[in-house]
Write a structure and sequence with these properties.
This is GAF domain-containing protein. By secondary structure, the protein is an alpha+beta fold. The chain has six helices and six strands. The protein is 42% helix and 20% strand. It has a six-stranded antiparallel sheet with strand order 3-2-1-6-5-4, sandwiched between helices.
């Protein structure tokens, strides 16, 4: 082959990775577009839920706002209010999940029931419903974690989840969390932190 000849793909070989990724990227872009065009908060959360379902799958999706100065989280969205009621508050401490996700801003993956028991206070209730894995995405704004996107599903569901894609989606959601943080700040001032369940 001369220096001017284009390389040929092997006959019968797989398409280049970039070509394989195009349909998935197009679908995700469609969800992102719907998020940008959503006219109100319910429509925004519906778009985010569909985007996360397309990217990773979930049987339960919740979103939590994080108020760093009070170490309090507020549930902004839930796909199942019977399991995780909307608007609930939790206090955060120095536990492994809080350090990993909220303080260090790192994605957390629970692969099985044992992992779920290690970090979640409501672990047995989740496990009883078949929610034995978790994929938690910190949402950052100006370098600080302002909340998290939380996906739960069957065991081993997120073993091969694309962390880079998760970070992109979390970034798309940041403006919503910033707006909700103002509400969390107002409401949290009247809540005794000692009365709350801890993450």
């Amino acid at each position: 082959m001369t220096g001017h000849e284009a390389p040929h793909a092997p006959e019968g070989g797989a398409a280049p990775a970039a070509e394989q990724a195009l349909p998935a990227l197009s679908a995700l872009a469609g969800h992102a577009r719907r998020l940008a065009l959503a006219a109100d908060r319910p429509a925004q959360w519906a778009a985010i839920s569909a985007l996360l379902e397309q990217a990773f799958g979930h049987r339960l999706f919740t979103a939590l706002s994080y108020l760093h100065e009070r170490q309090i989280m507020r549930r902004l969205y839930t796909s199942d209010g019977a399991i995780s009621p909307l608007g609930g508050y939790k206090s955060t401490g120095n536990g492994p999940w809080s350090r990993h996700v909220l303080e260090q801003g790192r994605i957390y993956v629970a692969h099985d029931a044992g992992d779920v028991r290690t970090v979640f206070s409501e672990a047995q209730m989740l496990i009883d419903r078949g929610l034995c894995s978790a994929f938690n995405l910190p949402v950052r704004y100006e370098g600080r974690v302002v909340g998290s996107l939380n996906l739960l599903s069957h065991a081993q569901a997120y073993r091969h989840a694309d962390h880079a894609l998760g970070e992109i989606i979390a970034g798309l959601c940041a403006p919503i969390f910033v707006e909700e943080l103002r509400i969390t700040q107002r409401e949290a001032a009247a809540i005794p932190r000692a009365d709350l369940d801890q993450v």
